[in-house]
Design brief:
alpha/beta, eight-stranded mixed sheet, single chain, Growth Hormone, Chain: A, 16 strands, 29 helices, four-stranded antiparallel sheet
Length: 826
């Protein structure tokens, strides 16, 4: 072959690079659809916990690390990289479909092995990680695979950066497509098949391209390529590893803090992730252009780390001191899309600068390491692996260790310090590498001065980072317009939630989780919390055992300990800080429930606990957080209610809270229709003395009439005097008064519920429907619609004529007084 022919053959692949870029855009799009779907899947397999996020991100990073390292060592260089790439894309799609259908079954099957509590969570986490590892390994191998087809020249390395950028651009599209369209309007299966179809399309095009595009296997690595790492190479790998650590640690940290500010909905998670990926993509584009130039890539990599010190500090000041006090009230707009635009602006302000610098670091690290190997796949694999190893350490350390142990303030300071260390590593490498070049480009005196300036600047910035405002933990997105002037009694950051306790000027205490009020000692909240307990206990003729899902302020659980006949109360709570610390601020209202010898507290996801528990209960009551909170919708699914039904003893009853405020009509319909699909003879009861903001759903495993005489007799018994006082303390003067909160049967709402979305494990659309109602103020309209058919039912209540007449009169009086408008009750 002549020299001209060789040159032509060598240049031929370059004309196909734009088409390969399209593959990477599609690959990134599919990968982020899978990530969003898998996160939703992990929420009901592991629980809505930090562990779920750690497993998802850790497995993603770990799989890509293994894939990037293993590719060059396992796949022979003689194989056409595009054919291998096509096979991997096809494999990713097939395995993702298998994960969708087999992972839930495997987790349920293995639940009895793992047990409950921390051991059970750990077992489920490892099982989920094992399932997700295979497709993520293939994802990690795609970039080194394409790199083997690229020349190890500045131009070729630049194209690798462009491929990486295209992958991130596709990831942004995939994140938004899954979070705002596919899962909002369809389900996890639809989203998965869409992503698999994209993988299949990329695979087919890659196979076709492999048939016409030339590939010349590179020679085996030289002896020099296998020599010990130089100082420069060591600095590059350590720097890109620390870059991965700070990037993923910051993502975990910022997701937590921005969720306080924006509201922890599914849309917030998608917006934060999309902005983070956008920053990585923009930065990678800039880094690819710089890597193509004649500038010293090592020095440019060091500048990125130096500017990261300031960018991380910028984000810390933004979240802690600036954004919470922007003169903007997000509640003024009832249009959720306008609210999302405001949320997007705040995320861009906070996240984009640092994310762009992390994105630039990767192609610059590739360029700095490019001279080490002839095999481009090995170069990319090594740099990619170092980055992802750091990312895994960042995810695990910040989510599970640092934030719970030292808090978000010190976690932000640690991020700044880590970025400063990576900048100093590059400075040291610059000082020792190619002295003559270093003198020309970076005088030794300047480098030594920078070695002093960087830690000093980082220390000053870290010291100046302000703490997160206590009020942000309490009011979140309402911080500029709180409902009262609080006196903060407690703020704590647990592994799974940030909690706070506050008190207003009337000495009413409030319990907050992740910036949202979940319970209080106000009359309306006390009535609701005790209704959940006392309705359950009184409508079951012989309650002995109780399961309470969600501790809250402990008021609902405490209602049960007022009954001497109840022998065992199990409380399932995911965040240990709540029973251990928060309950102490409400001991008067919850009867110091955590100290009652009949009470057992299990720290685990409620679904997993019920699934693995061999015990059946007379009463199961659920007082979860708002369904728009990410992960909460798993406690409103048809499968969950069926699981609850199977764990009720004969005659057992279940109650479930449904909020009408901060919600939409479609969301409330979905919650009620899903419950009544499992308990078709169920009924609903309203807390209508203070505004009708809440509904209690009631179901029975064996539908039987409610004997009003028996309820009245039990209420008036001397041994139940403590329980009766507990009921009267919240405004119900008698058992008849409590029963008059009855509002209707599920069958009464058949027409209203027609066409409602049934919330299922595979289609958690409730959290997307509810997430549209954060600023909604239509609880009066919803209440009016569900109360329209209210009347004294036939056959539900039995008893003496006198007692039934009293109940009918009480319901009619309550119905006559239940005209509500924005100004209050008439």
């Amino acid at each position: 072959m002549s020299n001209t022919e060789r040159a032509s053959s060598s240049a031929a692949p370059g004309k196909f690079y734009p088409l390969v870029l399209c593959f990477f855009v599609g690959s990134g799009l599919a990968a982020l659809i899978y990530e969003i779907v898998w996160f939703q899947l992990l929420e009901f397999l592991i629980g809505s916990t930090t562990v779920s996020l750690a497993v998802l991100l850790g497995t993603f990073m770990g799989g890509m690390c293994l894939g990037s390292l293993a590719f060059a060592r396992i796949i022979p260089a003689s194989f056409h990289p595009l054919s291998v790439y096509a096979a991997m894309e096809f494999g990713i799609g097939v395995i993702a479909i298998l994960v969708l259908y087999f992972l839930p079954a495997a987790t349920d099957l293995g639940a009895s092995i793992g047990g409950q509590g921390f051991t059970g969570i750990l077992f489920r986490a490892l099982l989920c990680a094992a399932f997700l590892l295979t497709p993520t390994v293939l994802m990690g191998a795609t970039l080194p695979c394409a790199a083997r087809w690229i020349d190890s020249t500045p131009k070729g390395v630049s194209w690798l950066g462009i491929f990486y950028t295209g992958n991130l651009g596709g990831a942004v599209l995939g994140c938004l497509l899954a979070g705002f369209y596919l899962l909002r309007l369809y389900d996890a299966a639809t989203a998965t098949f869409v992503a698999a179809a994209i993988n299949a399309l990329c695979a087919a095009l890659a196979f076709l391209l492999a048939a016409v595009a030339p590939h010349h296997a590179s020679a085996a690595p030289t002896v020099a390529a296998r020599s010990p790492l130089s100082l420069k190479s060591t600095a590059v790998y350590l720097t890109i590893a620390i870059s991965g650590l700070t990037a993923l640690g910051a993502q975990v940290l910022w997701t937590r803090l921005l969720s306080l500010l924006l509201g922890p909905s599914v849309y917030t998670f998608s917006i934060i992730l999309a902005v983070f990926l956008l920053g990585l993509g923009l930065g990678s584009s800039a880094g690819s252009v710089l890597a193509r130039s004649k500038r010293n890539s090592l020095i440019l990599l060091g500048w990125c780390q130096f500017f990261l010190v300031g960018a991380i500090a910028w984000a810390a000041f933004s979240v802690d001191a600036w954004l919470p006090y922007w003169p903007v009230d997000p509640r003024l707009s009832t249009n959720p899309w306008l609210t999302f635009q405001l949320d997007l602006a705040r995320c861009l302000w906070t996240v984009l600068p640092a994310a762009s610098l992390w994105g630039s670091s990767f192609p610059l690290a590739l360029a700095a390491a490019a001279a080490r190997h002839k095999d481009s796949g090995r170069i990319v694999g090594a740099v990619y692996a170092a980055n992802t190893v750091g990312a895994i350490v960042g995810v695990v350390s910040f989510s599970i260790i640092l934030i719970p142990m030292v808090g978000t303030l010190w976690a932000q300071r640690i991020l700044i310090a880590a970025a400063a260390i990576s900048a100093m590593l590059i400075l040291l490498a610059t000082l020792r590498t190619d002295v003559s070049a270093a003198v020309r480009r970076a005088p030794i005196g300047a480098v030594l001065g920078a070695l002093i300036a960087v830690p000093v600047a980082a220390a000053m910035l870290a010291y100046g980072v302000p703490p997160v405002p206590d009020e942000l933990y309490a009011f979140g997105r309402r911080i500029m317009n709180p409902d009262y002037q609080p006196k903060m009694l407690y703020v704590g950051e647990g592994m799974n939630a940030s909690v706070a306790v506050s008190e207003d000027q009337d000495r009413i205490r409030y319990f907050h989780v992740n910036g949202h009020t979940e319970a209080s000692t106000s009359p309306i909240d006390m009535r609701l919390q005790r209704m959940l307990g006392h309705l359950s206990a009184l409508l079951n003729p012989k309650p002995r055992s109780v399961l309470v899902v969600g501790f809250g302020a402990g008021v609902t659980a405490g209602s049960f300990v007022t009954y001497p006949e109840i022998k065992h109360v199990v409380i399932c709570e995911i965040e240990p800080l709540i029973p251990q610390i928060v309950s102490g601020y409400f001991t008067g209202e919850n009867y110091n429930v955590v100290k009652d010898p009949r009470v057992e507290i299990v720290y685990d996801d409620a679904r997993r606990f019920i699934l693995t528990s061999k015990e059946k209960f007379d009463v199961i009551t659920s007082d979860p957080i708002q369904p728009w909170v990410k992960g909460a919708a798993t406690l409103y699914t048809r499968e969950y209610f069926e699981l609850v039904k199977r764990h009720l003893k004969p005659g057992g009853v279940v109650t479930q809270w449904v909020p009408l405020y901060e919600s939409t009509i479609d969301a409330v319909k979905s919650e009620m229709a899903t419950f009544f699909a499992v308990f078709p003879d169920g009924s609903f009861w309203v807390n209508d003395r203070e505004g009708g903001n809440d509904v209690v759903l009631f179901g029975q495993v064996d539908p039987t009439p409610i004997n009003v005489d028996d309820v009245v007799e039990r209420f008036d018994r001397i041994d139940n005097a403590r329980a009766a006082k507990s009921v009267r303390d919240v405004g119900f003067v008698s058992a008849i008064d409590l029963l008059s909160s009855y509002a209707g049967r599920g069958s009464d709402l058949a027409t209203w519920l027609n066409g409602a979305v049934i919330n299922t494990d595979r289609d958690l659309r409730l959290q997307y429907l509810a997430g549209m109602g954060l600023n909604a103020d239509i609880q009066y309209q919803i209440y009016s619609e569900i109360m329209e058919p209210r009347r004294m039912p036939t056959g539900l209540f039995v008893g003496s004529a006198e007692t039934l007449a009293k109940l009918r009169n009480a319901i009619e009086i309550s119905e006559a007084g239940s005209h509500v408008g924005p100004g209050g009750w008439q």
